[in-house]
Amino acid sequence: MGLVGAGFVGPHHIDAVRRLGFVDVVALAGSSDATARDKAQALDVPRSYGRYEALLEDPDVQVVHNATPNHLHYAVISAALARGKHVVSDKPLAMTAADARALVDQAHRAGVVHAVTFNYRGNPLVQEARRRIATGEIGPPHFLHGSYLQDWLIKDTDYSWRVEPEKGGASAAVADIGSHWCDLAEHVSGLRIVEVLGVMSTIVRHRRKPASSRQAFAESRRAELSGSPQGEVVDVKVEDLASVLLRFDNGAIGSVSVGQVCAGHKNDLVLEVCAGGRSSKTSCGWVTESAPTRSFRRIRRSLAATSGTTRVCLVAIRKAGPTPSPMSSATSTRSSRRTRPRPNDNNVVPPRLQPLRMAIARYGSSKRL
Q1: Where are the domains of the chain?
Q2: C-alpha radius of gyration, the chain, whole number
Q3: Residue 64 to residues 4, 34, 103, 118, 184: CA-CA distances in angstroms?
Q4: Which residues touch 136 (CB under 8 Å, ≥6 apart)?
Q5: What tens-digit pLDDT sequence spans the chain (369 residues)?
Q6: φ, ψ for residue 187 (rounded to 5)?
Q7: What class is the 2-117 domain?
Q8: Distance in angstroms (rounded) separating the CA atoms of residues 318 and 189
Q9: Across the strands, what pairs with 2?
């Protein structure tokens, strides 16, 4: 395997393929000889190249993983396919639908394996939800809803090439993380989105662009410590928050909200598929962040309290039925008896508020009440 682009996500590609146990990572290409050499040394990759064209000429590279910024995807992938290399690319496949279709056609003509890394598909619990829907254990989906929220762009000193249309594309939050949610919804349900209606907003309209490039999720620590923000102030023309209404090919409807300016949400993807039919009245959901991380949420309590619920880790299978008393719900399975705090004891936190306290302690200044 050869990796093109070793910034934020590139090392995760290397880690993932090494875990397979049968893939040799033989080369890495960066933006210059110096950066490629440093990255290769840090990641224990034997060869480095300052140009991706040189990596593609390496006969030992059979598979190319493309982890470059979006605007470079088409050129790198097309060149790899022209040399008969298998390709695994980060999304998006290209900056435009026309370029993406051209790459798919080229891959078919080349007869190689080609894939885009919508990685949430591979989660075992996602596969379990997909299986239950495909086999009819969960009835036909009629409503899919959820969100994908992050907070790594909440400050005006937070910056990435993703907010530059010429590098990231015409869309930011929707294309960057909303695409993951939409792919997951289609993959789990077996349906296809056929109509959309959305509203987009840019909350942080001006950002300070640092003099040097910064990896995704990296904060401007220097500016925070010095108290004087650094960098050129630039206007932001892409969205960082959006809500979208959806219609699927079987007539089901849905909605999703995406945002990268939502305090307290680090990588918080939520998907619920509501389904039902004559033989089944069941829904299922998947959440990427645990209860303490996501703070205290009524939705998690209600999912656990529903009669007939079977929960496996973060997948909830919910069946219709009467709501039992709180003491018979899954939320109380840790202990059959709860101790009430004494009225004057301020050090005792009620069990239902403990996740909230943990979340506040975890997030520090990014408190979410």
Answers
A1: 2-117, 122-332
A2: 23
A3: 7, 21, 14, 16, 24
A4: 279, 280
A5: 999 999 989 999 999 999 999 999 999 999 999 999 999 999 999 999 999 999 999 999 999 999 999 999 999 999 999 999 999 999 999 999 999 999 999 999 999 999 999 999 999 999 999 999 999 888 899 999 999 999 999 999 999 999 999 999 999 999 999 999 999 999 999 999 999 999 999 999 999 999 876 655 555 555 554 555 678 999 999 999 999 999 999 999 999 999 999 999 999 999 999 987 666 678 899 999 864 444 334 333 333 333 333 323 344 555 555 443 333 323 222 333 333 444 443 444 444 444 433 333 333 333 332
A6: -65, -45
A7: alpha beta
A8: 16
A9: 27, 64
Q: Is the peptide bond before 92 cis (omega within 30 degrees of 0)?
A: yes
Residue of 25, 173, 160, 167 whose CA lies nearest to 88 = 25
pTM of the model: 0.77
Protein fold of 122-332: Dihydrodipicolinate Reductase; domain 2 (3.30.360)
